[in-house]
Amino acid sequence: MTASILAGKTYTIRTFGCQMNLHDSERVSGLLDSLGAYEAAGPADADIVIFMTCCVREAADTRLYGQVSSCKSLPDPPSGRRVIAVGGCIAQRDGEGLLKNLDNVDVIFGTHSIAHVGDLIAQVFEAGGHAVRTNEREETDATSMPWHRATTYHAWVPIMTGCNNFCSYCIVPYVRGREKSRQTNQILDEVTGLVRKGVREITLLGQNVNSYGRDLFGEPRFADLLREVGATGIERISFTSSHPKDLLPETIDAMAEIPAVMPHLHLAVQSGSSRVLKRMNRHYTREDYLSLIRAVRERIPDIALTTDIIVGFPGETEEDFEETLTLAREARFAQAFTFIYSKRAGTPAAKIDDPTPREHILDRFNRLVSVIEDTAYAFNQGASGSTMPVLIEGTSKKDAMKLMGKSPWNQTVLCPLPDGANPVEYIGKMVDIAIDTTKTFYLSGELVGGPR
């Protein structure tokens, strides 16, 4: 019944937030494709508009409300009926409450219910009204769903869902649930299949990949998983996210010893102050973090270390912030995602009053950004004069005559497109680029040889 209702319908998906949301969107897209729907150019051409949401920061709520409301002004699609659906973390958190402020939403589905989105949308097309499903648990595993990947050369591979850490500022455990690891054989079968299809790079996904296997084996076995995935023949392996408290020596050894694992580690520090880290419920100190990255660099000297940092956590003093600045300089981050603290209802940190003036927090944020720009620039200088393998992802948004790709260290790399060449010949291929220009946010150089 669902397939007969959705066959021929068009859809578009807007995705906010983390890589797990991107993967969920690929699964929803694949499900709709399997039911006979097909992707539209954008909301104006779509019978179905889906918003896959993130609730980590307040800005995501604002963005969702604005974009959903803007759908009211769209002309009717050729079918005469448009269904608006909201899924993901905000849907799981707010459920039917979303309808109070977004009166044009028809379907709401939570993080555990994406396998049912086709049925929910079909129900609204057939009977009208609203369809809401935000179950805490589902029997249907989303990883068994078909998917529609954005590219043919890269794939997201979830190895676990949920989180057990309950950082005091974070809503994720409440909307994604507790940690649940996939069986190792399922992951390996998926990666092996991707290799056969020509995928060059995979990203292993989890809220805390370093905890992989704790619920299955009584202890983390992420290092073992890395070694087994590395034996499948996949060319490039990356992973996210890593919690410092669970990064074990055996995982560092695996990273150093497996050729396919990229020399890049995203290790969120959040603050350089042990006092603030304790209030964040992070379970490590400043000294622990610095000791950890020294151990990583001892085994992988050229590692690109990236991180997340929150500025303005409730009660952060100027002294606390200075400790964050000094840690950032000592850590020599290749990149950092910097955020001003955003209060999330339902988290312990939301109950903490903070009298710090907004202008002081903004000043700290700008000072941190300046330090990160300095360390990122310094890291990129190490590539000057080198020749590196780059996986081409497309062309530069600013210059269609320049190819754009990623280095093994996750740096953006640009190079001129050869005269008369078609960019399509290079997308998804590996090329060697001799680096002659190093900037804060990108590298550029000249092609050496052809694509492979």
UniProtKB/TrEMBL annotation:
Its main location: cytoplasm. CDD domains: Radical_SAM (cd01335). It comes from the Bacteria. It catalyses: N(6)-dimethylallyladenosine(37) in tRNA + (sulfur carrier)-SH + AH2 + 2 S-adenosyl-L-methionine = 2-methylsulfanyl-N(6)-dimethylallyladenosine(37) in tRNA + (sulfur carrier)-H + 5'-deoxyadenosine + L-methionine + A + S-adenosyl-L-homocysteine + 2 H(+). [4Fe-4S] cluster 1 binds at residues 18, 54, 89. Residues 9-126 form the MTTase N-terminal domain. It is found in: Cytoplasm. Keywords: 4Fe-4S, Cytoplasm, Iron, Iron-sulfur, Metal-binding, S-adenosyl-L-methionine, Transferase, tRNA processing. One of its GO terms (molecular function) is tRNA-2-methylthio-N(6)-dimethylallyladenosine(37) synthase activity. Its cofactor is [4Fe-4S] cluster. [4Fe-4S] cluster 2 binds at residues 163, 167, 170. Binds 2 [4Fe-4S] clusters. One cluster is coordinated with 3 cysteines and an exchangeable S-adenosyl-L-methionine. Residues 149-378 form the Radical SAM core domain. Pfam families: Radical_SAM, TRAM, UPF0004. Belongs to the methylthiotransferase family. MiaB subfamily. Catalyzes the methylthiolation of N6-(dimethylallyl)adenosine (i(6)A), leading to the formation of 2-methylthio-N6-(dimethylallyl)adenosine (ms(2)i(6)A) at position 37 in tRNAs that read codons beginning with uridine. Monomer. This is tRNA-2-methylthio-N(6)-dimethylallyladenosine synthase. It comes from Collinsella ureilytica. The lineage of its organism: Bacteria, Bacillati, Actinomycetota, Coriobacteriia, Coriobacteriales. The gene is miaB.
